[in-house]
C-alpha cells in the first residue's frame, strides 16, 4: 500500500507548496478550501470514470465468498500496524486482541482468508499512527484533500508514512516486491470502493454540497476512531 500513498504525499506536497493564499472555511478547519475542492473534483472524476466501474465489475464477476476472503486477507495484513499503534497508545487490552486475531486468522484462517477470530469472539478494530499522534496530543491541522488519496490532514498525512515502518512486509525482500505493493494497494482500494458503493451513492444523492458532507463525515469518523467509539464532547470537531 506504500506506493500510492507515497505518490499522494508527493502530489499533495506540490499543490500545497503552490497555495499562496488561505481563507476557506475556518469553522470547518478548511483554509485551503478552494484548492481542496479542485482536488476533490479531480478525485471524483477519477472515481466516476475508473474506480467505480472497476469496483462494480469486481463485485459482479467475483463471487461474494471470494470477495470476503480477499477482504479478510487484506485486513489481516494490516493487523501488525494496528498492534504497534495499540501498544504506542498504551492500549494493552486492545493490543492483546489484535495479536490474538492475527494469530488465529493467520493459522486457523489459512493466512487470513477466513475470519475465524470473529466467530471465536475476538473483536476487530483498526489503529494507525495518525490516531496515535492524536492520543499523544497532536492537533489535526488543516483539512486536506489528497490527489488519489481523498480526505486527510497533516497529522494523518504524517501517520501514513510512519505506518509503513510498522508493516513487516516493508522489510521482507522478495521478487516483484514493487508489483506486490501496487497490487495490494489497488485491490484494497477496489475492495473498499465495492463495499462502500451504495452508502456513498446515498450520501451524494442526499447532499446539497457533497464536498462539505464528505469533509464533515471524515472529521467525525476520525474523531470517533481516535476516541475508540467513546464520545468526547470537548474534542468534537466544529462544522
Compile the SSE list and pairings.
Layout: H1 2-18, H2 33-61, H3 64-77, H4 79-88, H5 92-107, H6 116-119, H7 129-135, E1 144-146, E2 150-152, H8 154-166, H9 177-205, H10 210-226
Antiparallel strand pairs: 1-2
Helix pairs in contact: 1-8, 2-9, 3-9, 4-5, 7-8
3D architecture notes:
The chain is mainly α. It has one domain (2-19, 35-228). The protein is 65% helix and 3% strand. The chain contains ten helices and two strands; from the N terminus they run αααααααββααα. A two-stranded antiparallel ribbon has the order 1-2. The protein is globular.
Short summary of the structure?
With 239 residues, this protein is mainly α. It is 65% helix and 3% strand.
How large is the share of residues in beta strands? under 5%
Shape: globular
Q: Please state how the strands of the largest beta sheet are arranged side by side.
A: 1-2
Secondary structure tally, helices:
10
Query: Mean of the pLDDT scores?
Result: 88
* Helix-residue proportion: 55-70%
Keywords:
239 residues, mainly alpha, 10 helices, 3% strand, globular, disordered N terminus, disordered C terminus
Amino acid at each position: 500500500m506504500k506506493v500510492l500513498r507515497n505518490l499522494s504525499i508527493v502530489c499533495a506536497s506540490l499543490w500545497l507548496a503552490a497555495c499562496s493564499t488561505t481563507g476557506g472555511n475556518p469553522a470547518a478547519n478548511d483554509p485551503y478550501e478552494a484548492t481542496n475542492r479542485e482536488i476533490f473534483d479531480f478525485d471524483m472524476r477519477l472515481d466516476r470514470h475508473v474506480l467505480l466501474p472497476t469496483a462494480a465489475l469486481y463485485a459482479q464477476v467475483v463471487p461474494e465468498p471470494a470477495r470476503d476472503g480477499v477482504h479478510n486477507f487484506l485486513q489481516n495484513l494490516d493487523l501488525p500496524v494496528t498492534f504497534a499503534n495499540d501498544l504506542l497508545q498504551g492500549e494493552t487490552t486492545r493490543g492483546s486482541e489484535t495479536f490474538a486475531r492475527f494469530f488465529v486468522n493467520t493459522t486457523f484462517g489459512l493466512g487470513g482468508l477466513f475470519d475465524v477470530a470473529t466467530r471465536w469472539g475476538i473483536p476487530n478494530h483498526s489503529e494507525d499512527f495518525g490516531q496515535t499522534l492524536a492520543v499523544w496530543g497532536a492537533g489535526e491541522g488543516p483539512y486536506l484533500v489528497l490527489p488519489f488519496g481523498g480526505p486527510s490532514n497533516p497529522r494523518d498525512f504524517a501517520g501514513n508514512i510512519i505506518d509503513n515502518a510498522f508493516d513487516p512486509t516493508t522489510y521482507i525482500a522478495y521478487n516483484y516486491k514493487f508489483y506486490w505493493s501496487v497490487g495490494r494497494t489497488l485491490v484494497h482500494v477496489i475492495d473498499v470502493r465495492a463495499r462502500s458503493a451504495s452508502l456513498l451513492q446515498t450520501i451524494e444523492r442526499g447532499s446539497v454540497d457533497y464536498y462539505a458532507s464528505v469533509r464533515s463525515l471524515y472529521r467525525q469518523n476520525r474523531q470517533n476512531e481516535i476516541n475508540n467509539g467513546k464520545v468526547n464532547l470537548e474534542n468534537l470537531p466544529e462544522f
